[in-house]
Design brief:
about 30% strand, 10 strands
C-alpha cells in the first residue's frame, strides 16, 4: 500500500494538506496516524481526521517548520476501532527546504537499514503490530526471522564501515542484500 503523502514533494515551512484514501482501511472503521522520524531525532506524529471513509491531514506552515531537510522514515499505523489492533506500514520519504540547506541525515546506508529493521522487528516481536511493511513487503509475526536476518546483516555491515573508517581492513566485504 502506497500512501499519497509518500509521492508528494514535502517542503519544510510550507502548508501540507492532503487526503489519504485507503479502501482496505476506511476511516469509518479505522484510525490512521503517521509517525515521521529522522535518525535519532524526536518523532513527529500526524493524526488523520476522518472525512467519510477518507483521512484528511492539514499541517500549518508553523507546524512544518520543525521538519529539517533530509530523508525520514515513517510508520503509518491503521488501527481498527472495534478491536484496537494496529497494522503498521513503514517506508521512507524526503523532506526538502524551499531553498538549499546544508543540514541532513548523516547516517550511512547500513545505519539507516539497521534502524529500519530494528523498528520493524521490535513492532512485531513486542506484539505492537501483527504485520509490518518492510522493504516493500508485508511481513507477519511468523515471518519476523526475515527482518532479524536483515538486521544482523546491517549490524555487521555498520561494524565493517566503522573499521574501514578507522583504517582497518575488515575480514569480509560489505554487501547489499535484497530481502
Amino acid at each position: 500500500m502506497i500512501l499519497k503523502f509518500e509521492t508528494e514533494e514535502l517542503l519544510s515551512g510550507m502548508l501540507w494538506k492532503w487526503t489519504e484514501i485507503i479502501p482496505d482501511y476506511p476511516a469509518t472503521k479505522f484510525t490512521l496516524i503517521i509517525i515521521i522520524k529522522k535518525g535519532i531525532e524526536q518523532p513527529y506524529t500526524l493524526t488523520g481526521v476522518a472525512n467519510g471513509d477518507d483521512f484528511d491531514f492539514d499541517l500549518t506552515v508553523l507546524q512544518t517548520l520543525g521538519f529539517g531537510y533530509g530523508d525520514y522514515s515513517f510508520q503509518a499505523i491503521v488501527t481498527e476501532i472495534s478491536t484496537s489492533k494496529p497494522k503498521i506500514i513503514g517506508s521512507g520519504i524526503k523532506i526538502i527546504f524551499p531553498l538549499l540547506s546544508t543540514s541532513g541525515d548523516t547516517r550511512t546506508y547500513w545505519e539507516i537499514e539497521y534502524d529500519a529493521a530494528k523498528v520493524a522487528y521490535t513492532s512485531l516481536n513486542d506484539l505492537i503490530a501483527t504485520e509490518v511493511s518492510f522493504k516493500g513487503k508485508m511481513i507477519k509475526y511468523e515471518q519476523r526471522s526475515v527482518i532479524l536476518t536483515a538486521m544482523n546483516i546491517a549490524k555487521e555491515s555498520v561494524k565493517q564501515e566503522k573499521l574501514i573508517a578507522e583504517g582497518h581492513i575488515p575480514k569480509s566485504k560489505i554487501f547489499r542484500a535484497a530481502i
